[in-house]
Amino acid sequence: MRLRDKIFRVFRDYTEPAGGGALRAPDEDHYAVTTPGGDGRIMLGGEVEIFPLKPLNAYASFETRAFEARDIKTGKPLLALTAGRGRCPRISAVGSYQNVKSAHLLKLVSAGIVEWPGENKQVYTFVFDLPPARKLLPEGTMRTVRIGDERIIAALIQPAVEVLADLQAADLVHGALTGDNIFIAGAEGGEVAIIGECLSSAPFFRHGAIYETIERAMAQPGGRGYGTAKNDLYTLGVCVAMVLRGGNPLAGKPDDEVIREKIDKGSYAALMGGERLPAYLTEFLRGVLHDDEAARWNLEDAQRWLEGRRLSAKQPHNVMRARRPFVFRDRKYWELRTLAMDLAAHPSDTLALIEKDGLDLWLKRNFEDRDLELRLETFWKKEDGALRERVVAELVQALDPYAPVRYRDLSLFPQGFGTALADAMARGEDVQHYAELISLQLFNGWINQRYEEIAESAGMVTLFEKCRNFLAQKMPGYGIERLVYLLNKEIVCLSPMLRDFYVLGPGHLLMALERLAQRGQKLEPVLDRHMIAFISVREPKMIDPYLGHVISHDRGYQVIGILRTLAAIQRRFRIAPVPALTRTLSAQMGPAVERFFDRDLRQTIAQRLAAAAQGGNLSALLELVDAPPVVQDDQIRFAHARREFAFLTRERAALEQQLTRRATFGLASGRQVALLIASVMGVASVMLTIFHYYFWR
Amino acid sequence: MAPVKKSQPKKMPFSVRMSIFCLMVLGVIYFPTTVLFCGCMLPAFVAALVDNKADKTAGMTVGALNLAGTVPAWLELWQMGGQIEHAVALLLQPRTLLLAYAAAAFGWVIYLQVPNMVSGVLVKRGQKRLLEIEKRQQELARKWGPQIAADVQQAAPRKET
User: Fold this and answer.
1) Using CA atoms, how far apart are residues A298 and A237, in angstroms rounded to an integer?
2) Across the interface, do B122 and A669 touch by the CB < 8 Å criterion?
3) Residue B55's closest chain A neighbor by CA?
4) Looking at domain A30-130, which CATH architecture does it have?
5) 3-state class of B58 per DSSP?
6) Distance between start and end Cα atoms, chain B
7) pLDDT tens profile A641-671
8) Closest of A605, A469, A485, A471 to residue A537, by C-alpha
9) Which residues of B touch A668 (CB under 8 A)?
10) Between 1.10.510.10, 3.30.565.10, 3.30.470.30, 1.10.3290.10, what CATH number should domain A133-317 receive?
11) A548, A630, A616: which is closest to A577 by C-alpha?
12) Threshold 0.95, pTM exceeds
């Protein structure tokens, strides 16, 4: 049996139908996608039924949609929320959230990917207990639920602090403590808060400026970063202030006005105004709403206060104010934060201002702060020749080092860069400015100015340097796409080809490709930049060894690289056969087959490809074109054949040259033959003569 | 320009010179045999002289059969006693020269005809081989594609320069 046939005999085993060596079905815990049954019902996890035709709009918010659901065993009504892709739902926190057993936190019943009927789209769905109908601050209203001063601790503060403490124990922050996400259970006089869910979006993504500290309010929603329990407490403080005021005192004002008011008066004064409160509530609010991050209460402080222990009084945060105002765009500024905010918002005017030196003089005359002087000194050194947008970004950073980095239309903290980038990409926005921000190393300046204060500052610098290096490499698998997946551990694959799928891992990606192939969609390319970066970050071993092939300009190598990657994924995650995908890939494998020199072998492989494609096993497909013994054997035989051809060509040339001299061709050999014949005849004759003379005579 | 060295004439090897010397000595010792051979082997000497081919086989081809035709006379000379007058007497016999020269003539026939016959056979064989080569190369090109001729095509331009 020839080597080729021995190898192909192995391939037949892979093309047997299921039961004869085929791969088993995937593990449901990881990759389960719930599809509607034949009757249109959606059963999530076998325990919950979702009713896609029964929306609960009262509970829908912030790009989540809400629907009725039901516990199949008990009949209890539930709430199903479907999350938007770009808002980075906290899928990895599902397990930890479920382990938080607090009576005041909305309980998560089930979660998973659901194929939504009628839309042909996969969405991530969370199912919670149905919360009470009353919200602390319903949308569209400016009035909160009435809770008296004497009841507010028991009704709101204590339950919320308990929930936050339980979440902290599970290493989570809430990040969604807004008035429309706190539900009130119980009758009047016996109200108790139920804290709503926090899984359907990244932490603090859904907050308006009123719910955030001054610095964090300046950042775009996705750019605030993960946050801490202090940020949750601040938000709680805002909710408490609203309840005590009977509503949102800053309702109707745009975000920058809210921020200005907080800067001018301080958060407590901006929210409470001149309202007189019991001392204990004032103490609580002043503590959690303190504008100085270091002085602001943490959870331990809040718990001690709940226990009745007195804490040291927090002095209001003093903002540096100038003796004389600075005029910019017909507005007077007495302090730096609001000036920095407006400088960032008007870069052209800012640049003109820098050239006039007026700002520098005003700063020197009105602020005696060594840190400010050092920051400005550094800025002025770097200012010459720098990009104009960079100049503005660094100036405002020098003026207000605690504010987010503001570059062009972006305003974000380093910790929030990943989420903001993912959100922008999911929405299809231009992300060029995000890339520039990294390339210009603007986060380094922000981190260096607060190096001692930030716990993970060294790690952040290293991470952004890594991002810069990845950005500099333009090939697929790197670039801005890699950054999205590097900085967001639970974002779906944002490939435009996969917009209808909720791809959380390479196994999902493979199944999504199979579905696309089943729909008849042209997979060209099979793996785009997003998919390559996604796989490379999530499971580097699946693609990094083959990346050179995957990104090769040679179509044959490219197909082989893609096949190697997908086959590795199928093996690693034990994905069921993908026949539609193998059929699609086999149609593209012409260039890979063309790599073989032996045309007879090509024909054989093409025939076997057609058969193997029906089986859905990517490894079988790969073995046909990439089995090292077959490839080597083909190359060796080709080399032999080439040598033989060259040798025959030389022989032919020599013969043709000889035959052109036909008249003399072979005469020399003929003369040799004549000599031989004559010699033999002569010797024979001599011997006969001698014999005759001596024996016969 | 460097002076051209004149190629020095090849010196005859010692063994050859020794052999010629020994032959000359034998020729003198057996003078009658020498006379007989000189007379009978004349066609061989002539063939060697007139041979203008590079391989110089005419003398040996004719000489082999010429020698065969001379050997009867040589044996008869020995039988007679091997004297010079016997050698002359044999030379004067028409039968002796006829046999020797007829054998030499046959040698010429072989020398002139056999090369043509061989050449014809070789030409036919060469043509057949060309056909075989063409058929094999076509088969190789069909199986391996045009890139199999890459080495040859790369070499061809070099040859022309």
Assistant:
1) 12
2) yes
3) A668
4) 2-Layer Sandwich (3.30)
5) helix
6) 26
7) 999 999 999 999 999 998 888 777 788 889 9
8) A485
9) 53-55, 115
10) 1.10.510.10
11) A616
12) no
